[in-house]
Design brief:
about 60% helix, alpha/beta, 7-stranded mixed beta sheet, 5-stranded antiparallel beta sheet, extended
């Protein structure tokens, strides 16, 4: 406080000195002299003009008197000097730019007149009359300069006087402030004295309260030295350990409170705490352990400790112990309940999978049987009954799929992938157009944004489900109206785009009351109405779940009689050219004439066996059947089948295990295996493909689906007709040709160049991985399978795939057998790639690579 008073006085003295200096500077200003000099500038100009004019007027015979001329020149010299004086004063007073400009003009005119004065030596009036006129011309510039300079001087003087007033005001404020601080300091000194007395009393009361809290605490508080010898403990410690304070004081904690099996650990922890190897913050954090009572009973406790010093400065250890027997018992009950809940969840999943299989399998039989009915042999009445049965079957299947979809979305997780929202929505609109037109609707797609055709990272499955259900609902409930599906791509910077999706219709609209419930399961706008258009109340819940999983929010705007608009927004990350790698389709879509094939059908359901067999027999194929995986393995070992249709869920041996065994040995080791399943997760076939299945088909299977799948398989097998059987140690055959122009037409020239370059690099990495044979060699080789097939090197892709399969099945020697041939292939495709990429891009003469085909 004394220092504050001294500082206040020093500040007051310093402020007074500064004020005195500033006032002296202001009063020493030269503004008055500036005004006086400018006033004399006009007088000197008039004197120079009048003396020269008088000399010319008094001239005799056209000759000026020499004495009068000398007087005129002297007056001009005075005027000349006055301009210099004014110029210097303006420079000192920091004249504004316009004033300096006028002064510069006057100086230039003066300089020109000076030269005329010096050059004119005669006394003739005719020689001096022009000079007089030049002097007269300076009247207005001199007057303007004088007026502006006087105005500037007045302004400057006013500003300086204002500065002086402000200084005085500042001094007054600072003086008052410092006086206030002085008074406040005195007041604070008094308060501090009073607070000190109050604090002393509070400390005494706090000590009493701490002591009471210490004694009343429900947790045991034990004070010991750093050797663990107890100094003090509270009543809770007596109750917890069932010993008196006198019995505990002076004894080691480990001897009376720590179970024998934990004493060694306790000593190590205490030693590390004393040596500073355990941070105080860590030791203060509670951790669980066990303690023992006086009767030897063990019980769980929560323990924490901290290091402090007593009044003598000696280090002490303060430990806090809480009995958590009841808490641990409650936690054990919760864990048991969690285990039970997980068991029920597993049972639910098992039930769901079973119901998926058991419900879809008879539906498959029903739909397939109806499709096999020869409609042309029935009368109109029976044909109508068959059509009704088919529609009911399809509707039942759709409802089953919706229920399973709801469950799957609530339990499964979708991985992020890149996709084109515009392409997906364009396909959805194309698929829904027949439904819309059937109800007299016009459906249109509107896309806005510069990046609409780009690909983005996101959740393509959820996006497809959301838009499909919204657009289908709009088409289903709107009659003779319009349906608009709109995409708005709004860039937000750094390759991030906000996608706004809107699906609007001119249908009947939805009331506010219905809007609050239609996103719930099995809720419809008219729950009492049962018709083909009433729906099952699952479309909007599925769409909402899908939007929620993508991080968006589905909203609705609707008015009864005017239609509805559903919209949601997503934040998507743009896929750069480096990140995107075109992926080959699982099967090509080229249509070929079917070739009779030897097909093995494996299914434990006799209805499915008969129906699929009948479908395939009508197409001219040779059919064999098996009712479980073991029978299929036995048949495939002794006979070659072109195609094996493998049910996934079967007794004795399931389809996945049968697939693995068939591809290990036997005459059908290279057969095309298509999995058929009715399981809930059939839409995520990655795990089935890893078992060796070439494709997946979900139940129920219609005749059209089966035909389309066989056509796709036919395309693959037709491409391989000239190959030897697919064995791992076989040398790949030449490809035939590689059309770079076609590749450019598919993905663009820049992407095609990048794809060829990266694919060659991937093949090199695959060969390196095959040479080193690490745990991830199969994954590295798998990375090269897709790009080689996409480019057109399908036989090289097949060889790499066979090598990958051999590694996954543990046949490393067979995989090594492909190493030399793959290296030879690498040299050839490197040469091919070099020729293609160096060919002119606009001459149309790229080689088709017939002379150097890749393998």
């Amino acid at each position: 406080m004394l220092g504050l008073l001294i500082l206040t006085c020093s500040a007051l003295i310093t402020t007074a000195i500064n004020l005195q200096d500033r006032v002296a500077d202001i009063r020493a200003a030269d503004s008055d002299n500036l005004g006086w000099g400018v006033a004399h500038l006009r007088v000197d100009h008039l004197d120079a003009q009048i003396t020269l004019q008088s000399a010319i007027t008094d001239a005799t015979d056209g000759q000026i008197d020499k004495g009068q001329l000398q007087l005129a020149k002297r007056e001009f010299d005075v005027f000349y000097s006055r301009i210099d004086v004014v110029s210097s004063k303006l420079a000192l007073n920091e004249a504004p730019e316009n004033l300096q400009s006028r002064l510069a003009e006057l100086i230039n005119a003066r300089t020109a007149l000076t030269e005329l004065y010096d050059e004119t030596q005669s006394l003739a009036v005719s020689d001096w009359s022009p000079i007089l006129e030049r002097i007269k011309d300076l009247r207005q510039p001199v007057r303007d300069l004088s007026i502006d300079t006087i105005a500037f001087a007045v302004k400057t003087e006013q500003e300086r006087r204002q500065d002086e007033r402000e200084l005085m005001l500042q001094f007054l404020v600072k003086t008052l402030l410092l006086g206030t601080v002085t008074a406040l300091s005195a007041f604070l000194a008094f308060r501090l004295w009073r607070d000190l007395e109050t604090r002393t009393a509070q400390v005494a009361r706090a000590a009493t309260m701490v002591t009471k809290a210490y004694e009343a605490s429900l947790n045991a508080v034990i004070v010991s030295n750093l050797d663990g010898q107890i100094i003090l403990c509270n009543a809770a410690a007596e109750r917890m350990f069932r010993m008196t304070t006198n019995d505990m004081c002076g004894k080691l904690i480990e001897n009376i409170m720590v179970p024998p099996r934990l004493r060694q650990s306790h000593r190590r922890r205490l030693k590390r705490l004393v040596e500073g190897k355990i941070q105080i913050s860590d030791s203060a954090s509670p951790h669980r352990t066990y303690a023992t009572r006086s009767n030897g009973e063990e019980f769980p406790v929560e323990f924490s400790s901290t290091v402090d010093h007593d009044f003598g400065g000696n280090p002490i250890l303060i430990s806090f112990v809480r009995d958590i027997s009841d808490q641990v018992a409650a936690e054990n009950k919760m864990k048991a309940a969690l285990i039970e809940a997980r068991r029920h969840a597993a049972a639910k999943s098992t039930f769901l999978a079973s119901m998926s299989h058991e419900m879809r399998t008879p539906l498959h039989g029903l739909i397939a049987s109806l499709e096999l009915v020869e409609m042309d042999k029935l009368d109109d009445s029976n044909r109508e009954l068959i059509r009704t049965a088919m529609e009911c079957s399809q509707r039942t299947l759709a409802q089953v799929n919706d229920v399973l979809e709801i469950t799957r979305q609530g339990e499964s997780k979708e991985a992020r992938d890149f996709f084109s929202p515009t392409e997906i929505v364009r396909s959805i609109v194309r698929d829904i157009t027949p439904l819309a037109e059937e109800r007299g609707n016009a459906i249109e797609l509107h896309v806005t944004g510069t990046d609409a055709e780009q690909k983005y990272y996101g959740y393509p499955g959820s996006f497809t489900r959301a838009v499909t259900n919204l657009a289908t609902n709009a088409s289903k409930f709107t009659h003779n109206g319009n349906i608009d599906v709109s995409l708005f791509f709004v860039p937000t910077g750094n390759d991030v785009v906000r996608l706004d999706v809107e699906v609007s219709d001119t249908g009947p609209g939805i009331s506010e009351e219905d809007q609050r419930r239609i996103f719930q399961f099995f809720e419809t706008v008219n729950p009492g109405e049962l018709s083909a258009d009433s729906g099952n109340g699952l479309g909007l819940p599925i769409a909402k779940i899908a939007v929620d999983r993508m991080g968006g929010k589905l909203s609705l705007e609707s008015e009864v009689g005017k239609g509805s608009t559903f919209c949601f927004s997503l934040t998507l990350e743009l896929v750069t050219a480096d990140a995107e790698r075109p992926q080959p389709a699982l099967t090509p879509v080229t249509m070929r004439a079917p070739t009779p094939r030897n097909i093995l059908i494996v299914d434990d359901n006799q209805v499915n066996l008969r129906l699929i067999s009948e479908m395939l027999k009508r197409q001219g194929h040779k059919i064999s059947t098996a009712t479980n995986g073991r029978q299929a393995v036995d048949l495939a070992a002794t006979a070659h089948f072109d195609i094996i249709m493998m049910d996934v869920s079967m007794p004795v041996m399931d389809g996945r295990e049968a697939t693995r065994r068939i591809q290990q040995s036997g005459k059908s080791v290279n057969s095309y295996i298509m999995g058929i399943t009715a399981l809930v997760d059939a839409v995520v076939p990655d795990e089935f493909l890893r078992d060796g299945m070439d494709s997946i088909l979900g139940k129920p299977v219609s005749q059209k689906q089966l035909t389309d799948a066989l056509r796709q398989i036919e395309d693959i097998m037709s491409d391989e007709e000239d190959e030897e059987p697919r064995v791992v140690n076989q040398t790949p055959e030449p490809e035939g040709s590689f059309d770079f122009d076609q590749l450019c037409g598919m993905v663009g020239e820049d992407m095609a160049v990048q794809l060829v370059t990266e694919t060659v690099s991937d093949v090199q990495k695959a060969i390196d991985a095959l040479e080193t044979l690490t745990d991830n060699s199969a994954d590295v080789i798998h990375h090269a399978v897709g790009p080689t097939g996409f480019i057109g090197w399908t036989k090289l892709s097949s060889s790499l795939k066979a090598t990958e399969l051999a590694l996954r099945q543990g046949r490393e020697e067979d995989a090594k057998g492909m190493l030399d041939s793959l290296k030879s292939c690498l040299l050839e495709i490197q040469k091919v790639a070099t020729e293609v990429l160096e060919a002119p891009h606009d001459a149309g003469i790229r080689p088709a690579i017939m002379d150097h085909p890749p393998h």
